[in-house]
Amino acid sequence: MSSRRKKTTPAGAAVLPSLALLLHALRGEVIALELESGALVRGTLVESDAAMNILVERVEFRDPQGVTSRAAMMQIRARQVYFFSLPTDWDVDAELALQVRQHVTGAAEGL
User: Fold this and answer.
1) What does each C-alpha distance from 11 to 4, 14, 48, 97, 107 come to in angstroms?
2) Which of 26, 28, 46, 66 could, after both became Cys, cross-link 55 (CB 3.0–4.6 A)?
3) CA distance linking residue 12 with residue 111, whole number of Å
4) Residue 104: its H or E element
């Protein structure tokens, strides 16, 4: 049995892993990522999925050699992300609770 299985609420609705919910809650926020390659990415989070694949816009990309470039949009696979940082003024507890409520309510309405 895999430890990465989705948790299930009493109503039977699947709840995404908490890190995926946290990332999903950051939509519209400027985030910074470090990739496994050592590259740095900074941009506005457009979307993330349950696997934590990320789509960012207005991207500033700095490669491991320090060369900076810009892009309108960039898609990043979850396995490429070493870590991401949260905005300093962001209330993690409140946003995560809101995401869980929205996800559970949306799943229950689909029953």
Assistant:
1) 20, 9, 25, 17, 9
2) 46
3) 9
4) helix 92-109
SS3 of 7, please? strand
Q: What's the predicted TM-score (pTM) here?
A: 0.71
In a domain, 30, yes or no: yes
C-beta separation of 109 from 12 below 8 A:
no
For residue 8, being part of any structural domain is answered with no
Q: Which residues pair with 59 in a beta bridge?
A: 71
pLDDT digit string (tens) for the chain, length 111 residues: 444 444 444 444 455 457 888 888 889 999 999 999 999 999 999 999 988 899 999 999 999 999 999 999 999 999 999 988 877 887 877 877 777 777 666 655 554
Report the half-sphere exposure of 75 (CA within 13 A, side-chain side). Answer: 3
